[in-house]
Amino acid sequence: MPHRPTTPNLFAEAPIASRPQTKDSARDSKDWISAHCDGGARGNPGPAGFGALIQDANGMVIAELSEFLGIRTNNYAEYSGLLASLQYALDHHHPRLRVVSDSELMVKQIQGKYKVNSPDLRPLWQEARNRIAKLEGFEISHALRHKNKDADRLANEAMDRGMKRPHASGQPAPAPLKATPYPTQSEAPPNPYAKADTMLRGFTKDGVVHILGNATLPDGVFVKIIRE
């Protein structure tokens, strides 16, 4: 009976550390890179950002990805971190990628254990699957937040930049390598509050106006603030 090539399992369910290493996997281990990714929003939705720390097979940091996303949800930001990590691997010709995230929802959706019911997340999930299919190997696992500190730091630095907050050093937050966090077809939906003379609700902090909900303001508009 002729031998048929097997299809690689792109959606690994077991944690990376628990997977036994075969001769083939040991030989190819140098081709793997790893990404710790995270995303967050201050408010849900609120000012959002993602961060990802990319390491080579020897644990050396080869890239730090971080980007402010505007007013988004936590889950949207988490997916943006995953997509940025996948795009980095593809752009830099790394055939195998291991991802660690503290978003249990995203990890189990990518693994196929949870359904993707959100219309906002569905395009991001589909784009992640498309990018994963271009890799020779892919694994994703869940970790608690305290084991994802570097990615959390990068995500918070992105949010600080977007909100014009200073870095812990007192200087503006540094801007790591910019990445494309999500596909163009997943741009924000049309803004229902774009018409003139529409009253929006929000708050001011550190001299910056923050709009509640999914609303965004087009460039060049004048804002009247009424104290409540």
UniProtKB/TrEMBL annotation:
Supply one GO molecular-function term.
nucleic acid binding
Naturally occurring in which organism (per UniProt): Edaphobacter aggregans
Which residues are in the RNase H type-1 domain? 29-160
Protein name in UniProt = Putative phosphoglycerate mutase
In terms of superkingdom, the source organism counts as Bacteria
Positions of region (Disordered):
1-28, 163-193
Q: Which InterPro entries match?
A: RNase_H-like, RNaseH-like_sf, RNaseH_domain, RNaseH_sf
Please name the SUPFAM superfamilies in this protein's record.
Ribonuclease H-like
